[in-house]
Amino acid sequence: MSRLVPLRPDLTGLSGYHSAQVDVQVRLNTNESPLPPPDTWLEELRSELSRVDFNRYPDRDAHALRQALGEFHGVGPEEVFCAKGSNEVLQCLLLAYGGSGRCAALFEPTYALHRHIASLTATEVASIWRAADYSLDLNEADALVERVRPIITFLCSPNNPTGRAEPPEVVTHLLERAPGLVVVDEAYGQFAPTSALDLRQPERRGTSRLVVVRTFSKTWSMAACRLGYLVGDPEVVEACKSVALPYHLDALTQMAGRLALHHVAAMEERVALVKEERDRICTALRELPVETWPSDANFVLFRPLKRSAKQVWNDLLEESVLVRDCSEWRGLSECLRVTVGTATENTRFLAVLRSSLGHASTKEHAQTRKR
Ligand SMILES: *Cc1c(COP(=O)(O)O)cnc(C)c1O
Prior knowledge:
- The chain is 38% helix and 15% strand.
- The protein has 371 residues and is of the alpha/beta class.
- The N and C termini lie far apart (44 Å).
């Protein structure tokens, strides 16, 4: 393709990251919360909205929000950095620590944005593949970090799209072996039994290379807001601040996040519901001709055995159920990923899936046909 002006040479061939959006009744493809935030949050937001000085720039340091997040996690505001979604947090880390001549390490298959944002910041990427059960071989990981001496080692826990949380021993092990930052992306952290946040050692302040990244997009039912943050050493927070654009975090987002922290119990209720539904989906999948992997997140990866992933994806779409087609991603051939929805949505997903795989009860079959 001829171009008006040549693109940065290292970016040719790179395409934007996106998930196909189709108008469907049951949207189970992007791992959002199926439930809206609590009404009381919305009321508080409406009432504070009237007090915003819209003619003025927002608090550049997002101090009140960072203070509140710090209290939530038992750390100081100087250990919290906030940005427009955890993707911007990752971008700031890579702008501050990556760049040409530096290398980030990661373990495939994993969240595609880690590699993508590294490439956008001209950071080299070195990776190895996870085992067939998607666990990490620590000997291979050691060899990788020894060879490339990464400035950042990325872990995603629970790992998107495979679903398992990284055992704390793995994080500790990598912290000992990897020379640079160990960034644990915990976008789905609240659904998992363990968190790298528990590995932080307050007495090691000023020397900790562990960075934990979280987001309001999944558990907090606030994907529309674009708010993410990291908990890490004050030095890392300062480095991120120095590369973020001035006023990158607008007043509305700061306010929405701060007020959300008044509703921790409601968030935890939603998480409990999703976990219950996730386990129901996992149990149901075990009865079907699919290969499936355990999940500590709000999604489940599975591989249909009797029909192709594409055929099953199409059958689901025909019944207005959208799941993520991962079948062409490397390391995930013939895999689909379903986000846990409401009980009704999950029941519908399972019914259509059973029917697609020839396992429907007569009643279910009649119902899916009727729609
Ligand atoms: C969804 C997701 C995010 C969220 O990104 P935001 O920019 O906060 O919406 C981050 N990391 C992983 C692994 C995700 O799956």
